[in-house]
Amino acid sequence: MENKHYDLKPILTYLTIIIISLIALQLIKSLDISYPITITTTTKSSELAVVGEGKLDIVPDIAYVDAGITVNAADSVQIAKDTINSTNNKIVESLKNLGIRKEDIKTSNYSIYPDYSYDNNVNKIRGYTGNATVSITVRDINQVPQVIEKATQAGANQVNGARFSIEKPENYREKVRDMAITNAKEQALKLAKNLGIRLGRITNIVESSPDNTYMPYAMKSLPMGGGGGGPAEMEPGTQTVTSTVTLYFEKK
Question: Which PANTHER family does UniProt cross-reference here (predicted)?
């Protein structure tokens, strides 16, 4: 009878991977971890992958305000055009007097179109509607309430909101990336100690694409009626810049 010999090495390797993964999951629950991490034992039994995260909450340093101009039932295209231009010039001048730079004020979405009425199956022009938007970049976010107030006083009849943002989030990404790497190293050392293994050099570093989608704070459209008191206070809040890295360590 022929004796068959089986190579048990692959089976033992996969059993080792499963056992280490189960132990790691239990250790994670008992460790004091300030950031969420992911532990992965690769198919190469000599590697351990650790995911670390860094994040910073940043106060926005720039704001954007859209002031709309709407003209209804103008008797002619020229009247609609003149009304829009006059209001636009007043808004721009008012903002410049507030210290907003000319290059931070842009007029867009300019349109004029006829309004029709139907009489005896005949289309008749009953007037013209005109629209324009003055887009304002506010580099001193403390000025946002004054910008909105001045724009409405000058004739804007639709303020779509103030959007706060971080002008250059890339200025913070290197620091956040360093935080993520430090976090991953710290957690890897804790795990190595508790697992009773020694870590060698880092063989690879992978940074996930940051999903720093800034959800801007937007103030609701303002009523255009009169009223007492000064401009309302607005809080920009904070926005988060994040980085996630995966470090691959040799296991000794």
Answer: SLR1258 PROTEIN
Match domain 62-165 to its CATH number in 3.30.300.30, 1.10.10.10, 1.10.260.40, 3.30.70.2970. 3.30.70.2970
- With tokens 């620091």, the residue in question is 175
* CATH class for the region spanning 9-58+169-212+241-251: alpha beta
Q: Determine phi and psi for 133, rounding to 5 degrees.
A: -125, 130
Q: Residue 164 in contact with residue 236, Cβ under 8 Å?
A: yes
pTM exceeds 0.70: no
Q: Where are the domains of the chain?
A: 9-58+169-212+241-251, 62-165
Which amino acid is it at 138? V
Q: Residue 96: exposed, middle, or buried by beta-carbon count in 10 A (0-12, 13-18, 19+)?
A: middle
Residue 84 host element (H or E): helix 77-97
The pLDDT of residue 6 is above 60:
no
Q: Are 51 and 184 in contact (CB under 8 A)?
A: yes
Which amino acid appears at position 84 of this protein? Answer: I
For 172-208, the pLDDT digits (tens) are 989 999 999 999 999 999 988 888 889 999 999 999 8
How many of the other CB atoms lie within 10 Å of CB of 48?
24
